[in-house]
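Sequence only, no structure available. Ideas?
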Amino acid sequence: MEFYHKPVLFDETIESLDIRPAGHYIDGTAGGGGHSLAIAKRLTTGKLLSIDQDPDAVRAAGERLKDFPCATVYHSNFSCMDEAARKFGLAPVDGVLLDIGVSSFQLDNPERGFSFHSDAPLDMRMSREGVSAKDLVNTLSEHELEVILRRYGEENNARRIAIGIVKARETAPIETTLQLADIVKESVPAAVRRKPGHPARKTFQALRIRVNGELDRLSEGLDAAFSILKPGGRLAVITFHSLEDRIVKKRMATWCTGCTCPPDFPVCVCGKKPKAELIYKKGLSPAEHELEENPRSRSARLRVCKKLAETEGAD
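Reply:
I predicted one. C-alpha cells follow.
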C-alpha cells in the first residue's frame, strides 16, 4: 500500500511559513512528503530537513523528494529535531512545520492497527518499535487503563470500558482491533451505542496517544523547534484534537507573554519581554469546501507564531 496522507489546511500552512528561497526549514512530520515537496519547490539555495519516525513514511518521502538536492529525509522523532538540525548543519532555521497526529495511510492500512473499521493486529505503533496497544490492554491494571482512557481520550465511560477489557482478557488475550472495538461497544451504555459514530473512537485515540507518547513528544518538539528558530522564523503546528491544541495554544501563549507585573504598577519591574508573536490570534480551521472534500479535517486547527528578536519585545 502506497504511503498517502492528504494534508489539511495545506495552502494556509505553506503560506504561513513565509518561505524564503535561501532559507532553512524543517518538516518535523514528513508523512507522505506533501508539505515537504511544497517547501522544496520554493527553495533555491535553501535547505530542507524532513523528519518522520515511521520508516514507511521515510521511504515514501525519500522517493517523493529524490529530485530535490536541497532536501534530506531523516528517520527520527520530531522531538529530537534540534539535534537533527545541528547534525545536518541547518540550525538555526527559518521555519518549522509540525502536522500532528496519525496519517491517512496509517489509518487506512489495516495492518498498522490504528483503526476500528478493519480487523487487524492491535498495534498502533507509529515507529513500529516498542510497546504496542495489544501489550497495554493485556497487561495494565483496570485502574491504569481507566486513567489512560480518561486522560488521553476524555472518555466519560472510561471505568466501564476498563472493567470490560480486564474481564474479556480473562477468557482470552485481546489481539485484534475488532476484538477491542466489540469489547468497548459491549461495555458502554445502550444510549451511547445509539449515538452517531463508533463508541470505540475515543478508546482507540487514547491508546494510540499512550503507545506513541504523543503529548510528551509534542511538548518536547515545540521546545526543540522554538530553540532553533532564527529571529523572524516561524513555527506552524496543525493539531487534530483538543489535547494537542491545548498544549500548542498554551506554549505559544507563554512565548508571546511579556510583562507580568500587576496592572496597577506604574512601570514594569519584572523585565519580561515576549519571545514571539502570533500570526493568527485564534488559529485557523478548515474552510467549508475542505470539510466537504476531507471529513477527517473537521477537528484540525493551525496555529502559527513568529520568533521575535530580543529587542522587539522591548518597550
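The longest strand covers residues 229-239.
Hope that gets you unstuck.
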